[in-house]
Design goal:
Shape: globular
Bound molecules: BIS(adenosine)-5'-tetraphosphate
CATH architecture: 3-Layer(aba) Sandwich
Largest sheet: 5 strands, parallel
Strand content: 5-15%
CATH superfamily: P-loop containing nucleotide triphosphate hydrolases
Radius of gyration: 16 Å
CATH class: Alpha Beta
Length: 190
């Protein structure tokens, strides 16, 4: 199986590049952000709990997202592999993901980490906020909180995957096609 963690700060292009990767390599896309937003859209209890946190740019509790991913893995038992987009975001999530994949007789193939400077991230997210309807894209204070959450809780995962020899860092500035080509080059050597 090909199991990729697509990594990077908010607005780095994870969602954008995931959509290209799932088509090219016939993988299942698991975006915790998308799953949470669909829970909010249908008004589940989980969605209501997540909305307050997401609107502020805070992370949702580990137990909630781990449970969501676990059930998605069970529902896609025949997949060729997965693109994990926006998950894991904490060490507890990374450890839980490793354990879930061991249970399925597989493991993470690589972490692909997109590098983009804060100024560019803020510009992209404010631009998306003009029509995304997402409260967390609407103002610079919330975007800065998301970037802080990333720096404090999520960025340390690069060391976690580096220790497993699975980290590749890719420049995330340039055209979407150029960045996709760089990701494909790394994946094709796995
Ligand atoms: P996500 O949905 O994961 O949001 P994101 O980080 O903003 O998305 P992404 O990084 O994929 O956006 P993209 O670059 O594609 O999370 C939202 C919230 O959900 C979190 O803050 C948290 O509250 C919660 N959450 C989700 N997962 C969680 C977890 N595991 N644990 C706890 N909480 C969790 O797109 C950004 C913009 O850039 C787009 O407009 C795109 O068009 C543009 N863009 C992309 N590539 C570009 C390029 N090369 N050049 C110029 N623009 C580009």
């Amino acid at each position: 199986m090909l199991n990729l963690v697509l990594f990077g700060p908010p607005g780095a292009g994870k969602g954008t590049q995931s959509n290209l990767l799932i088509n090219k390599y016939n993988l299942v896309h698991l975006s915790t952000g998308d799953i949470l937003r669909s829970e909010i859209a249908v008004g589940t209890a989980l969605g209501l709990e997540a909305k307050t946190l997401m609107d502020r740019g805070d992370l949702v509790p580990d137990e909630v997202v781990i449970c969501m991913i676990s059930s998605k893995l069970d529902n896609n038992a025949d997949a060729n592999g997965f693109v994990f987009d926006g998950f894991p975001r904490t060490t507890a999530q990374a450890e839980a993901l490793d354990a879930l994949l061991v249970d399925k007789g597989t493991s993470i193939s690589a972490m692909l980490s997109l590098k983009v400077e804060d100024k560019e991230l803020i510009k992209r997210l404010l631009e998306r906020g003009k029509d995304s309807g997402r409260a967390d894209d609407q103002n610079e204070r919330i975007i800065s909180n998301r970037i802080n959450e990333y720096n404090n809780k999520t960025a340390p995962l690069k060391a976690y995957y580096h220790a497993q020899n699975k980290l590749s860092e890719i420049e995330g500035v340039g055209s979407i096609t150029e960045i996709a080509k760089k990701l494909n080059t790394v994946i094709d050597t796995l």
